[in-house]
């Protein structure tokens, strides 16, 4: 599933699920969550575009690490938000959202965990590693 599909499916659910005689999307808490999802998606997408453009210029290390961190954190947050909007359907295995959330959590780990991406970014920002770490003299 692509990121765009996540928000499309969540918006469809928000516009069709009736609770308390109204669509759940008419509740501000739900509509604001959808806005947050869109904002995170857009910010991450722009970082990916910037990293892609930097490859051509040969200065990709920092924007690539930032884009991987931003994209995987956004994917996990958007996935959890999509699950919340689906209520129990977002949790049980009969519907696709639950599997997508598990896949999104994997993106925080593979190809360099978010913690390790931050180590890379800190080093590229010129932040010196600790002299007191094990093995250093
Ligand atoms: C879905 C999925 C697909 C994968 N695909 C591949 C693949 O195709 N090829 C492949 O080789 N591997 C793959 N992996 C393995 C993945 O690269 C490792 O799981 C990842 O590097 C973390 O290693 P670990 O599981 O041993 O966790 P650990 O290294 O034990 O990490 C545990 C925690 O400690 C933190 N941590 C560890 N070291 C540091 C550090 N130096 N600084 C700060 N924090 C640190 C981590 O961020 C994490 O929060 C995949 C993993 C997943 C979940």
Characterise this structure.
With 137 residues, this protein is mostly helical. It has a single domain (3-10, 27-124), classed as Butyryl-CoA Dehydrogenase, subunit A, domain 3 (Up-down Bundle), CATH 1.20.140.10. 66% of the residues lie in helices and 3% in strands. It has five helices and two strands. The protein has helices spanning 3-16, 28-57, 61-85, 96-106, 114-124; strands at 18-19, 22-23. A two-stranded antiparallel ribbon has the order 1-2. Helix 1 (3-16) runs antiparallel to helix 2 (28-57), helix 1 packs parallel to helix 3 and helix 3 (61-85) runs antiparallel to helix 4 (96-106). The longest helix has 30 residues, at 28-57. The relative contact order is 0.12. The model has no long low-confidence stretch (mean pLDDT 92). The protein binds flavin-adenine dinucleotide (FAD).
């Amino acid at each position: 599933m692509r990121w765009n599909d996540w928000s499309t499916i969540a918006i469809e659910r928000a516009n069709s699920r009736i609770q308390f005689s109204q669509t759940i999307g008419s509740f501000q808490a739900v509509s604001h969550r959808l806005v947050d999802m869109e904002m995170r998606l857009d910010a991450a997408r722009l970082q990916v575009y910037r990293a892609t453009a930097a490859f051509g210029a040969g200065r990709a290390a920092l924007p690539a690490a930032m884009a991987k961190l931003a994209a995987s954190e956004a994917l996990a947050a958007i996935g959890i938000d999509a699950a919340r909007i689906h209520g129990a359907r977002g949790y049980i295995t009969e519907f696709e959202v639950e599997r997508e959330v598990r896949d999104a959590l994997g993106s925080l780990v593979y190809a360099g965990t978010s913690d390790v991406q931050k180590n890379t970014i800190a080093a590229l920002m010129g932040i010196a590693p600790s002299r007191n770490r094990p093995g250093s003299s």
